[in-house]
Design goal:
Number of helices: 8
Strand content: 25-35%
Largest sheet: 5 strands, antiparallel
Structural class: alpha+beta
CATH topology of the largest domain: Uridine Diphospho-n-acetylenolpyruvylglucosamine Reductase, domain 3
Order of helices and strands: EEHEEEEEHHEEEEEHHEEHEEHEEEHE
Distance between the termini: 23 Å
CATH class of the largest domain: Alpha Beta
Shape: globular
Radius of gyration: 21 Å
Strand order of the largest sheet: 6-7-12-10-11
Number of strands: 20
Helix content: 10-25%
Length: about 350
Amino acid sequence: MLKNNLIVENYTLKHHNTFGLDAQCGLFAQISSVEGARAVIKRYNPLKLPIHILGSGSNILFSKDFYGALIIKNYIRKIEIIRRDAETVWVLVGGGVLWHDLVLWTLNRGLSGLENLSLIPGTVGAAPIQNIGAYGVELADLLLNVEALHLETLDIHHFTKNDCAFGYRESVFKSKLKGQYLITKVMLQLSRNREVNIEYGDIRNTLANMNIDSNHITPTDVSNAVCNIRKAKLPDPAMIGNAGSFFKNPVILNQKWESLQNDFPEMPHYAVGTLEAKIPAAWLIEQCGWKGKRVGNTGCHARQPLVIVNYGGATGLEIMTHAENVQRSVRDKFGIELMQEVNVW
């Protein structure tokens, strides 16, 4: 473990990405405060180096080395309750806190809201960028505001939920403001008595298999169920390199869906409002023959084809080529464009 605010030259990022790729960087800094981040950037600002912000590296594919760049790892890890009333608790969380650690922190204090987002890899600072979501809940449902450091001016800016322009796995930090900020803190609004959401996916059935009384389901019960589901579906990055779901589930117009249904009547879908339908990307990929298929050192996982894995020794370019081949085959077969969920550096 590197000391906080320490700067290292010619550093390997192999242990800072869940794909396990051995990318090299010229300068690596681990910061634990806004002041530490400002000091590091000021020191190297005259060199005009590109700056990349790194969380836990769980949603990143390194496609190259970074000898001419400054990589800053966010290690701001304070969690504090700012305000509370009879029903609601407002929690301010540092951007370097590991997301699942935050979920456990809230559950241990009797707070609900994050349980459906259990075991999502990554840090709190990355969560608004991606607008993380799972099992019927998105970060946007719980977030009040974001504090972020502008990497050029070094000023602190505050963003309301509306400012973040959240969408499905999208935000202003992933589009218009991409690469411009280090997210330092996030304010969440959690509940003391929120009703649990068990209507999405296999949560209800999993709770039944866990012998949980359906009349007395707690947020911790839901969290445990979600963890069980995720562990059963997704490969452990500690065992085989991966970054979870590589692609988003595509959303298409109903007109397009109805046309596809004629040729593929078994195609699953979920209504998105009244005009669109969401198609499971995993189903599309499997229909194109990629599930469990290995190409060189990479491939689509045998249990979950949405996950591209590094079997050992793969390069970022090799993984990227595989992803592009998957996208091409889905486009050719269904006329649907798969969009990457993983960020490519």
